[in-house]
Amino acid sequence: MEAETxxxxxxxxxxSVCGEIFNxxxxxxxxxxxxxxxxxxxxxxxxxxxxxxxxxxxxxxxxSLTQLCEEHDEKLAxxxxxxxxxxxxxxxxxxxxxxxxxYPLREAWEDCKExxxxxxxxxxxxxxxxxxxxxxxxxxxxxxxxxxxxxEKQIREEFESIYNFLREEEADRxxxxxxxxxxxxxxxxxxxxxxxxxLACIAxxxxxxxxxMRSEDIPFLKNYxxxxxxxxxxxxxxxxxxxxxxxxxxxxxxxxxxxWEKMKTIVKFTPVTLDPNTAAHCxxxxxxxxxxxxxxxxxxxxxxxxxxxxxxxxxxxxxxRSGRHTWDVDVKGNTYWVIGVASESINRKGKHVLxxxxxxxxxRFRNGEYKACxxxxxxxxxxxxxxxxxxxxxxxxxxxxxxxxxERTPLYSFTDIISPRVYPYFCSACKDHPLRVMPVRLSVTxxx
Length: 448
Known about the structure:
Elements: H1 2-11, E1 25-28, E2 37-38, H2 39-49, E3 65-67, E4 76-80, E5 85-88, H3 89-93, E6 102-104, H4 105-213, H5 217-232, H6 248-252, H7 255-262, E7 283-285, E8 291-294, E9 313-315, E10 324-330, E11 337-343, E12 360-366, E13 369-372, E14 378-379, E15 388-394, E16 399-403, E17 412-414, E18 422-428, E19 435-437
Antiparallel strand pairs: 1-2, 1-3, 4-5, 4-6, 7-8, 8-19, 9-18, 10-15, 10-19, 11-12, 11-18, 12-13, 13-14, 15-16, 16-17
């Protein structure tokens, strides 16, 4: 049938669908009506019909297309290994593929599919990786948006607190000014009243005496005694008002400094701020990033490289390369904690061995036992359970020392910190009580 089809195409080289001369001529295997088609026209018809039937007689095909060699109009029955393309019998026997290795099309079809399947495996693995990376990036983008919104809200709340303080402080200071104005104005007004009364009295005495002086001799002399007595009363000199002006200097002198100094009542400073981007999924942090609580539930957070993914761990936000640094951690009631410093190069993923060789210089409390995480771990001698742990880091001496702030003797010291940069380290698996970085006392001084 395929030979007859080829002959038919030679007699009538036009497509039964579009009527044009063939572009890429094809015939259906097991074709009964004798129609022939362009490859594009047949594929389009099958797509529109959603079935593989002959567009002319609607007879079912076996789903295969017999394509012909464009050069020889012969069936493409072989595959050229050199050029990786299908060829007809004339091509490899007499044409440009005579020196190439060829083999039957069906075998090549199976082999090439297997080869392509093998070639696709690493691409499919990469596709999975990129799909996962895309999902992770989408989650990070959403988390960034949520972080920004939450942080903006907290910034506004913090500034609103400062605004409220300043507004209240402004109102208090203006109130004091108004009270001083009222008090001193009353003093001055009372003095003005006294002066006005005395002024009226003196003026009346003068006016009366002058009137009497214009009288005749007998009436004048009759009233002289009373008139002269009025002049004997000598008024005191007007008192000069002192200290009645507004104490402007008291209200305006170093005003900003005094307000700033008073802000110590609402301002807290903690030497270490917790880094939420390193916190394990089970941690809940306070708004001011000074308190961490371990929960039974977990939060959906990006698995960024900085974050601990298994253990209940986290770091402080600032690393130290040099200098001395001190911070206190409230551990009251917490039954499982690890506190100290960690190298910036530690692996944040998986379980950790908390030893100096792994980049950790810490002490811990677990199962009622206090130990320094040395190699091997060393028991700590405690006279009483500490309410807080003080960490004193001296990077210039490669040393970190732990104290109970109530005691003078250190609990333990590491003197082998080998790391260009370390971060405060926190671990807590206690569900009932948090860890809290304690604030330090603020003081405002003037360099005279």
